[in-house]
């Protein structure tokens, strides 16, 4: 399976035409999917360590995974099962909540810029600047002209990041309304999951169509060469986790990461160790 | 195996009397040790998620794992293999390097306080405020009276954290000078590892005895009830990873973490979902 087949083509977006429960490009079910994800771990670890090592050469390259999706679409599951495969030392996860009073005083990209991964890191945004054209649009939290400007501002911002060495992987986790209902009910059926449930989730759910429209506009307007969108069928959790894992892997492969050469004389240093005075 | 057997007893510390290559309390070798670590994963994940969930109740509880040890002692390996078992969403790792110019303008605990885990998190310090009584002492980077005061200041600081809900787990990864030499030579024998090697590591190694003394003093002076030290035999990497995993698990168990109760009427919310108008 090549995860790139989920790359959104340019042009208008109709999310109802993209299946949420399909598993294109993969033969097999949940068990095989979990095994396929686990099988990515070694190469993912190797490539992430090369990216991490490259920091020492002054490289500014890094990767930014942006996760967007409706409530229960599985952003947390991707963090645990897919991002969890990578050495946590080189990962920086930021979960964006409703903006704080301080954040509201600033330009919408202010808190995003503060959370960008440093060179060498795999950064992950659990929600992102896209909330500023999604929930903000659905609830009318900004003027239409302001929202209208933001699409272009996001594109300029992401192009600037790409120029500065950031490989951007934007994933929309795509679930159906029926699947969300099942997942919300499951949270209510299990006392261990009550903490994940918020009555407000049902209010948001009633605006499903408005969110779909907001997503369709955002996906179309910000689906750039520098930072294209991937729409990941996410009704099947194992498939969602696998696709994001493959996307990480394929983007890291494309970076052609090499181990940095020694910036010292290897034989001289080996000689120092071999001939050292007794150490104890 | 109960990892607590590595708890440092009160009183003077003689690191030469603590074996670096022993595997007390564990029958078996590398393969069994790796399997025993993997076997902790499910319970670790469950307990960490309970800690994470507890945030929603306003609890301030969190865990702070402090990793100290000589170069090559395996702080990075513990991060990858042990901390990597935990959901990365709830983990915050901070690696402390030589202080920046800005950090040097502040009290030595300033940068430490900024990096403390928020409630609900497992925080990990890869090096820590202990560098301010270790490398600083070995290299005479502060006045002796300043260093002398710091032991008490660290104890006061850690007691304050414990009162504020922070469970502190301090691990000294204990390796022999001979094992360090093997590990440094291994880095020079493998071009994929050159980036991990720094010629300065050999200069530091020549001060092995001074570091041991600095560790012994620091361990004795800061081995408090609120934040005791664990000395982890670390010549065998698998045993080191397993002991730190067990320490995390045992401390999380001791927190008696429960799933938060619902702060809403479960039946009412279920009814809203079951009887909702069609959503699409």
Which key phrases capture this entry?
280 residues, homodimer
Write the layout of secondary structure elements.
Two copies of one chain form a homodimer.
Chain A: H1 30-38, H2 41-54, E1 62-69, H3 75-81, E2 91-95, H4 101-104, H5 110-114, E3 122-126, H6 135-138, H7 144-163, E4 166-174, H8 177-189, H9 200-205, H10 208-221, E5 229-233, H11 237-254, H12 266-274
What would you say about this model in short?
The structure is a homodimer of 280-residue chains. By secondary structure, chain A is of the alpha/beta class.
Supply Rg of chain A. 21 Å
Structural class of chain A: alpha/beta
**Percent helix range of chain A:** 40-55%
Biggest chain-to-chain interface with counts: A-B, 48 and 48 residues
Give the distance, in angstroms, between the N- and C-terminal Cα atoms of chain A.
54 Å
How many helices of chain A in DSSP terms? Answer: 12
Account of the protein in words:
Chain A has 280 residues and is α/β, with parallel strands linked by helices. Chain A contains 12 helices and 5 strands. The interface between A and B is large, with 48 and 48 residues.
């Amino acid at each position: 399976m090549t995860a790139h087949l989920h790359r959104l083509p340019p042009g208008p977006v109709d999310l109802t035409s993209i299946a949420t429960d399909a598993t294109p490009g993969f033969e097999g079910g949940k068990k095989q999917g979990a095994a396929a994800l686990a099988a990515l771990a070694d190469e993912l670890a190797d490539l992430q360590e090369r990216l991490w090592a490259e920091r020492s050469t002054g490289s500014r390259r890094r990767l930014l995974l942006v996760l967007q999706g409706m409530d229960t679409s599985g952003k947390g599951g991707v963090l645990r099962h897919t991002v969890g495969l990578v050495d946590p030392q080189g990962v920086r996860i930021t979960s964006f909540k409703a903006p704080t009073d301080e954040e509201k005083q600033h330009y919408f990209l202010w808190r995003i810029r503060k959370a960008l991964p440093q060179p060498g890191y795999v950064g992950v945004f659990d929600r992102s600047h896209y909330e500023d054209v999604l929930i903000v649009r659905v609830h009318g939290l900004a003027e239409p002209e302001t929202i209208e400007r933001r699409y272009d501002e996001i594109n300029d911002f992401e192009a600037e990041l790409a120029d500065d060495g950031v490989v951007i992987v934007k994933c929309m986790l795509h679930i159906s309304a029926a699947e969300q209902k099942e997942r919300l009910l499951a949270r209510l059926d299990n006392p261990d999951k009550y903490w994940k449930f918020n009555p407000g989730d049902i209010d948001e759910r009633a605006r499903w169509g408005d969110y779909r429209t907001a997503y369709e506009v955002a996906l179309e307007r910000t689906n750039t060469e520098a930072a294209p969108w991937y729409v990941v069928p996410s009704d099947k959790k194992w498939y969602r986790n696998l696709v994001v894992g493959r996307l990480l892997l394929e983007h890291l492969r494309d970076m052609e990461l090499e181990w940095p050469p020694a910036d010292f004389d290897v034989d001289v240093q080996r000689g120092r160790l071999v001939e050292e005075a007794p150490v104890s």
